[in-house]
Write a structure and sequence with these properties.
Helix content is about 35%, strand content about 25%. It is of the alpha+beta class. It folds into two domains: about 160 residues, Adenine-n6-DNA-methyltransferase TaqI, Chain A, domain 2 (Alpha-Beta Complex); about 130 residues, DNA methylase specificity domains (Adenine-n6-DNA-methyltransferase TaqI, Chain A, domain 2), CATH 3.90.220. The N terminus is likely disordered.
């Protein structure tokens, strides 16, 4: 990198011992790196689900979602067989490091190709992820290539230091991925167990039953309105401008969306999201809330009567609730439809409790693993703040 390109010199707050006397980091706009052909920036191509069905294959296609690293599906062809950085143009600008493999990206994603030996691709990807945390993008203010070129300034040390930082964060990512696989395995185990412990739709007995209940009677379906008291009238919507930060969870259709300084409920209840698109896509949004919390008008509030709440939530996550969704703009699981959903109920309270205890034990394992994974992700975020200099802090 030429010294003439240098805009400012910085050092991180945390530096590996062997680099404490190394030169300071130099700041460059992505636009400068592109002009000097240190990087190339482009955009993906249109690949639809219909295209993937028409040309099936094993090559990954990445799109704008931040879920599952943006994986949209697989295709019979590929655009790249190299290491790249991609980012979501429509989904908020999130950056991904793509190791060398055969893959494609869609037209709502951009890519950065490294052309200079002075830049380590994974290091630049990590830094862009760190910088992204302080940027604001949404579906109106999109992260087009021409936009990110002008707003992202990256800081480049010598290559050896870049590689050391990339290796450190890469090892942490490997650990996070391993713990994520453990969490996914626990969730999959629970799902498989529930499929055995609950009757399938149209059946009256589960495939797997605890020995002491094998001669018990059939499970009988009851409508949710017969099993629960509906507390929707106690919900109060809050606009984002009215929220004040605090310790109490604020629930919406898909779970906790914020933490605020007030609460409506102080008891253990079942919340069922009304987001019909998720239910149609078989992405259940039923969960148990406990303690003090607020609920907006996008989640139905149920107080089970005569049934263990764990069983209700578990069964809702298994069944095809999407068929009860109505409307298109947007589709919703209305209270009227929710009331009528049939839930099979074991004939004995003792069987309900036994199943609930079993699932609650698994839930505790899943919760512990989730917290472990969250702690690792927080550690990574904190470490990145230390490993990368902050231009704003240096200017203040």
């Amino acid at each position: 990198m030429s010294k003439n390109d240098k805009q400012q010199a910085l050092v991180p707050r945390l530096r590996f011992p062997e680099f404490r006397d190394a030169p300071e980091w130099n700041s460059f706009l992505l636009e400068q790196l592109k002009a000097k052909r240190h990087i190339a920036i482009g955009r993906g191509m249109v690949i639809s689900h219909d295209d993937m069905r028409a040309n099936p294959g094993s090559y990954p296609v990445y799109s704008s979602s931040v879920i599952n690293d943006g994986l949209m599906g697989t295709f019979g062809d590929y655009m790249f067989d190299e290491e790249l950085i991609s980012w979501s143009i429509d989904g908020g600008g999130h950056f991904f490091h793509r190791p060398k493999h055969k893959f494609s990206i869609t037209n709502v994603s951009g890519y950065i190709r490294i052309l200079s030996d002075d830049i380590v691709c994974s290091f630049l990807a990590y830094q862009l992820q760190q910088l992204h945390a302080s940027k604001t993008f949404d579906y109106q203010q999109k992260a087009h290539p021409s936009v990110i070129c002008k707003i992202y300034s990256v800081l480049i040390p010598e290559r050896a230091e870049q590689q050391k930082i990339a290796d450190c964060l890469g090892s942490l990512d490997d650990l996070i991925a391993a713990e994520g696989r453990k969490l996914a395995a626990l969730r999959e185990h629970k799902k498989g167990l529930m499929q055995q412990l609950f009757p399938r739709e149209g059946e009256t007995r589960p495939r797997l039953r605890f020995p002491e209940f094998r001669n018990a009677g059939e499970w009988k379906p009851q409508a949710i309105e017969e099993l629960c008291e509906i507390l929707n009238n106690r919900r109060i919507p809050i606009t984002s401008s009215d929220r004040a930060p605090g310790p109490y969870p604020y629930y919406g259709a898909s779970g906790i969306v914020d933490y605020i300084n007030d609460y409506i409920f102080d008891e253990r209840l079942v919340l069922v999201g009304e987001d019909g698109a998720k239910w149609k896509a078989f992405e259940p949004t039923a969960f148990i809330a406990d303690g003090k919390y607020w609920v907006n008008n996008h989640a139905h509030v149920l107080k089970p009567v005569g049934i263990i709440d764990t069983l209700l939530v578990s069964y809702l996550t298994l069944m095809d609730v999407g068929k009860y969704v109505t409307g298109t703009a947007p589709p919703k699981l209305t209270l009227k439809k929710l009331r009528a959903i049939p839930i099979p109920v074991p004939p004995l309270d003792e069987e309900q409790q036994r199943i609930a205890n079993c699932l609650s034990f698994l839930d505790a394992l899943i919760d512990a693993q989730t917290k472990k994974l969250d702690a690792l992700r927080r550690h990574k975020r904190g470490l990145m703040q230390q490993l990368f200099p902050s231009p704003e802090a240096d200017e203040s």
